[in-house]
Amino acid sequence: MLKFSVSLLAGAAMVAAFPPSIIKAPTEPVPDTVDFSVPQGNWMPSRTSPDVPSAANVKLAARATGEKVSNSNVARFDNSNIQDGVGDGVDSYTLYLGSGSTSAGWPDKSRWVSFENMFNKYKPQMFAACGNQDSRIPNTDGPEVGAIWDGIQMTSAATGVDHRFVLAILMQESHGCVRVNTTTGGVRNPGLMQDHNGVGSCNDNHTVQKPCPSATIYQMIREGTAGTSSGDGLANCINESGHGDVSDFYRGARIYNSGSVSSTGNLQSNIATHCYASDIAK
């Protein structure tokens, strides 16, 4: 469970910004509260399985690669504004319980931090993640971090998924390690997004690529967001939630992790990582 920085909430200033293509790693140490273990990806049903209704009995959108967010209330295709939030986030953790709605205490989108601040805060983790997961794996370097930035921006523009949400899921799944291990906790989950049986990976079957090509980094991010031939990405998870408000992001995160929202409507219920949606919102 990621505990260091607030993915989406406002707060006090943290580390200074520097360009995403910088060659050297930052000098700020990574707090010892960071858990670099890799979650067991997502458990969503395969595309050949019958659609699984959400708690609100909303059917999944047609499963196909190239997914897009269909509800204009939550879709965002123009992600060119990178200073699109409030504050920088704080080094704290809030456990959110319940439905993911603002009435249940979950943060409204107006309280999310900006993409630029969020990305800059996560850079120390990106530069350290691979070595902390496995000391034999080379850490993500400056150009690869820059490719993560570019990949998120291109993917968000194509899918309508807010770039901050894509980054939050990416950090939850891999901490930004471009050579993250492919996990197989029930479903094969490769790459930065630990997506559903995708193709993009720079560490599959113990074959590690250094450097990790920019095209592969983009592919990993796109497969996690726009879906694969085997399973849904973030866009369809948001579509399945179907509420048309900020709760679709938190519910969509839970669907991405476990395949559905519990019939209770509570995001801490169900299989897989119980605090997954809360970790994204924190």
UniProtKB/TrEMBL annotation:
Gene3D superfamilies: 1.10.530.10
Signal peptide positions (record): 1-17
Top-level taxon: Eukaryota
The entry's keywords: Signal
Protein name from the UniProt record: Glycoside hydrolase
